[in-house]
Structure formats: C-alpha cells, structure tokens
Amino acid sequence: MTATALPRKVAGFTPGMIGWLAFLALCLAIGVASAFQVLTRGLIVTHMSNTVPWGLWITVDLSAIALGAGAFTLSAVVYLFGLKRFQAIVRLAVFVGFIGYTAALLALVMDIGRPDRFWHPWAFWNVHSVLWEITWCITIYLLIMVFEFLPVVAELKAFDRWPRFRSLAHSLHKVAPYLALLGLGISLLHQSSLGATYGVVKARAIWFKPSMPIMFILSAVAVGPAVTMAIAYVIEWVTSRPTIPHDILRTIARFSGFGLLIYLYIKLWDLAATTYYGRTPSVQEALARLGDTTPYGFGVWVAEILLGILLPVLFFLLPRFSRRPGLLVLGAFCAMIGVVFNRWDVTVSGLVIPLNYSPGTIYQSAAGVYWPSTAEWGVAIGVVGYALTLLTLGIWLLPLFNHRPQGQ
Asked: What is the CATH number of the domain that holds 330?
C-alpha cells in the first residue's frame, strides 16, 4: 500500500500560515463573543465596581498607546531632526502606531459602558476634564497617522484606477514635517496627561505627584521604538526577506536602552521620594495595604524594573548582546511586559487603595478587590487578535518596506 504525501501548501498557504490564521480567527471569535455579551448585558458581566471602576481594559488601552509610541518618536527623528537614514522604518512605525491606537479605542468602546455615546466628548466640551483633553488628543493624533500613512495605502494595486487619489495622497509628503511636528506635540501632551489622570482623578496618596506624566512619556518613548524594531526583525524571519538595515535596528535598540536608563533614574528617585524622603502616614498606609492585598512589590521590582528595564538595557547596550537579533527581540518583549505591568500597577493597584473622605476619623474604607472576569479576558484577547490580524494583513498587502536594506 503506497502512502500519499500530504501537500505542503494549500492554495498557496503553508501549514504554518494556516495555523497562524486559525489562531487569529480563534482570538477574534472569542473577542466578538465576549463583546456581544458585554453589549447586550452591560458592565455587570465584568468584575469592575464603584470601588474599582477601571481594570484590565484600561490596562490594555494604556499599554497599546505606549507600545505604539514609536510612530511619533521615529517620525520626529526623520522629519524634525533630519536623520534620513531612519526613513526606512518610518512606514512600519506609523503602521504599528495606528494599530496601537485603534486597538486602544476598541478597548475603550467596551469600557465606557455606553458605546453609543462615544461621540459625546466631541459634542459636549468639558475643558476642565483631563479625560476630555486626552480624548481630543487621541482623536487628532489618530487622524494625523491616517494622513501620514495614506501615501502607503495609495500604492496598493487597487488604486491603479484612481490616479487622482494616488496623486493627492502622495502630495501629503510635502506636509510630512508639519504633520510630524504636530503629532509630536499632540502625542507628548496626551501621554503626559494619561499619567496626570491618576493623580487628578483618583487622588491616591502614592500617585498624586508631578512625576507621573514624565514617567508615562519616558516609558512610551523608550519602549515604543523597541517594539517597532522587534517587529521588523520578526517580519524578516517569517518572510525570509530583508526589511530594515540591521545597523538601523541596532541604533534604535541603543536609543531605547538609553531611554530606559533615563526612565529608571526618574523611577528610582520617584520611589525614594514617595516611600522614604517624603513619606507621610497616608503613603505609608497605602503601601502597607498594597503589600497585604496585591502583588504590588513583585510587579514593581521584578516585572517593571528587573524584567522590564534592566534586562532590556543589558541586551540593547552591551555589544556582546546587541549584535544578536534574537536577544534584541527578547529585550523588546521584556520591555513590553514591563510597560504592561506598569500600567496594571498604576491602574488597578491605585484603585485598590480607598479614598479617605474624612481625614482624622477612625473609620477606614475597605480595600478594593478586583480580578478580570471571563468576559474581560475575552475582550482583551479579541483586541490583541485584532492588532495581530491588522499587522498580518499589513505585512501581506502593504508596501511597508520601500527601501533596499544595505549593510546587513
């Protein structure tokens, strides 16, 4: 009996590609099913409450925005500082930024409870609200990225019949420096405002400080380009085609390494000022409660500092490691985990500490308790699946790399 070999490709797709597409379809199906449950039953299906009104979805939102920060950072490097050698990675950076910001908006649509009212911040202005200012900044910056990326989309074969549209899209190259300048300002504004929100809105003792906006900016500026660098390497491995010159990717890794060192310096001084030099009874009580009720210490010292900063710095800056693409990708992945843990620690851990509405009284509110529900995890999986699907389609359809790599 003769055995028949299975075909290695099905309709042009390798088994690995079929498996990847099946994984993406599963993530999207889980996300759609969970979103349907939330939209039909409301936020009651979540484990959020009046005490802890923000949770996993806000963590996904803030992390996606930070991880997409390579767009404004690398655009500023090329168009404002004139470092044209980094032009080869700008398209990918803007595309990754677009994915990050739209993924964040998907998480927000689920989180606001009334997604039919998403347009209210645009129609009903509250100029005294930090969240209103963030909404406008994200909206404007998303439009800027659309304009920046429109010339790339116009190169698709589908627009061969639309020469006027293609000509109009390519004319946007003339205003690219101005878009980069506006995008840099808007991005820095809303990145810092996200950090300020946790002091203004929640007013917890350990978050109410001027260093929060600075740390949010630094973490995004340091980690965003590293994520773009890692994606370029992974695309090269998967497609077996050169993407970006390796010397450029190593330079971006060094930039992220020095950025993480600056972020570490500010973070350590912030921890010292909060927990030692400027310790107050409210801060001491808050830290004690966090230590008793949450893995806050592990999240800060192990996940954020050791895994999210120190390991990437070693991989990015030491020559014996930085010349190995695998370690650069691993370092970017560790830095990404550190940012996600930071956003979780700030969001959820900060809400665990109850507000003391009557200082001096004996009564003390109970600490908040939160762990994401199945629906929350499902929506988060769906958002991640959306981001990976969009990235996959972009690699497949869009001319993300229009420069011939040299000096590999």
From this structure: 1.20.1630.10
